[in-house]
Design a protein that fits this description.
Dehydroquinate synthase-like, alpha domain, Rossmann fold, 3-dehydroquinate synthase activity, two-stranded antiparallel sheet, seven-stranded mixed β-sheet, about 15% strand, nucleotide binding
Length: about 350
């Protein structure tokens, strides 16, 4: 796979990624090497990853409990203490080996420890390969509110090794696939058309599609790192999707949703809103709803659930001056940012989803 050049770093694939790592992880360049993992990546990914390293540095492994519920400041405090106790200094480097929680949280820790040390993301899930590890967003949740505390700073590199996907559960693959579908919907109709024919895809096709998805996200982010304009298009499906994800995460009576599962619902809802605002045709909305509903299980919402999700919208980090901001579609492959929406229309979108 061809290396992708981002603003200040490269996204390297498979063997090229390990060649790069082995060339820079030198004792004269870095004083300490830390690898951040969770319990899943420690078991399933770390042995393969370590086997690819040909370095003479001592390695310290820091392992976390797995799950979005641990992506918080309390976990950061534990890791900052661990880095200090293990002799971390300003010439240390952190390798974030894991899914979106690890790359988000690990990047935030690296950006704030000793006022900032180098970090490299090695994503091990489809979601983190095509989304979380790319673009320089690093952060943690505040209670159940997604990504409220964070910083934008790009990694030194991102290494994509698709070998890790061989041990990834099917529901995690579908979660990541939602972000790939989003990239097609907001930016490239041909890419969307290729993705929607899942039954025809091979393993080699998946590698190519992952590469294309990263190209799309990088193309958008490279124009607008700090999200003042076009980068807001990446929020399609996320305004309502994040509210749904947060509500299900905090509610003991609800089964927590994976990020992509919540975003898929958000994309269905926000495509309906796009249609009702005259931006998207009925045919396009029905196509989106049909494709996503075929891939992702339906989730039940009662009126109280909907109200609570809408109440959470005000905390969305994309809001400006107290106004909820949406990225909506004005056709498949093109997005319109800074759109507003009345609560009545959101309720209608949920009714359409339930139908």
């Amino acid at each position: 796979m061809q290396t992708i050049q981002a603003n200040n770093y490269q996204v390297l694939f498979n063997e090229k990624g390990y060649e790069y790592l082995n060339s820079i992880l030198l004792p004269q360049k870095y004083s300490k090497l830390f690898i951040l993992v969770d319990e899943n990546t420690s078991n399933y990914c770390l042995p393969h990853f370590l086997s690819q390293l040909a370095i003479e540095m001592e390695i310290e492994i820091i392992e976390l409990e797995a799950g979005e519920e641990h992506k918080n400041i309390e976990t950061c405090l534990q890791i900052w203490h661990s880095l200090t106790e293990l002799g971390g200094d300003r010439k240390s480097i952190i390798l974030n080996l894991g899914g979106g929680v690890i790359t988000d949280l690990g990047g935030f820790i690296a950006c704030t420890f000793k006022r900032g040390i180098d970090f490299i993301n090695i994503p091990t899930t489809l979601l983190s390969m095509v989304d979380a590890s790319i673009g320089g967003k690093n952060g943690v949740d505040l209670g159940n509110l997604k990504n409220q505390i964070g910083i934008i700073r790009e990694p030194k590199a991102v290494i994509i090794d698709t070998h890790f996907l061989e041990t990834l559960p099917g529901e995690q693959m579908r979660s990541g696939f939602a972000e790939m579908l989003k990239h097609g919907l907001i930016f490239d109709k041909i890419y969307w058309d290729n993705l929607k024919n899942l039954s025809d895809l091979s393993t080699d096709d998946l590698d190519t599609l992952i590469h294309q998805s990263i190209v799309i996200k990088n193309e958008i982010v490279s124009q607008d790192l700090t999200e003042n304009g076009i980068r807001k298009a990446l929020n399609f499906g996320h305004t309502l999707g994040h509210a749904i994800e947060s509500y299900f995460l905090e509610n003991e009576n609800k089964k927590s949703l994976l990020h992509g599962e919540a975003i898929a619902i958000g994309m269905i809802l926000e495509s309906f809103i796009s249609k009702e605002k005259g931006l998207l045709t009925s045919e396009e909305h029905h196509e989106i709803k049909y494709i996503l509903s075929d891939i992702y299980d339906a989730v039940s919402f009662n009126q109280n659930d909907i109200k609570n999700c809408i109440d959470l919208l005000i905390y969305d980090k994309k809001n400006e001056f107290g106004t909820v901001q949406f990225a909506l579609l004005d056709k498949i492959g093109h997005c319109k940012i800074n759109e507003t929406c009345e609560n009545e229309l959101i309720y209608k979108a949920f009714e359409d989803y339930k139908s």
